[in-house]
Fold this sequence. Notes:
This protein has 153 residues and is an alpha+beta fold. Helices cover 30% and strands 34% of the residues. It contains 4 helices and 5 strands; from the N terminus they run H-E-H-H-E-E-E-E-H. The protein has helices at 3-7, 23-28, 46-62, 130-147; strands at residues 10-16, 70-81, 90-100, 104-112, 117-129. Strand 4 and strand 5 (117-129) form a beta hairpin. The longest helix has 18 residues, at 130-147. The mean pLDDT is 95.
Amino acid sequence: MNQQGVSEICFEETYAVPQDQTARSLFARLPHGSAYAQTLIECLATGYLVAVVESICIREMQMHVDSMVEVVVGRTVYIEHRGPIPPTTSLRVRGWVERLGERSATFRVQAHDDHELVLDGTVTLVAAHRASIESRIAMKVDALETARGGQRV
């Protein structure tokens, strides 16, 4: 990880909220959420909001790692989802590196719509050794296959 490059990351961009990223839409796809999904409001789901912010931070940090050797992964996400965000809203998402570790970066992130601050929080990412992560995943997949009697899911 190029620490100097990561330390200088600062971004500001606009995100147009699509119609299909509402709480109703997300929970309708989940077995335990489908029963009540239609009772939810048509606003951006917190899960999608987290994914949008985390994906921007990952994209920015990815520019400062050797992707053949390292992979950027999430460690922690702390956000306050402060206001409803209807579909088609334009969000102004901004962030900057607030803390830098040996292999990690903590981003301060905020999002505003035309009326208010709708997200405030931090996202911590790690530049992990790709081979190590791939090895850990392979071990888990093998263990799952063994537990299922060798049947691949």
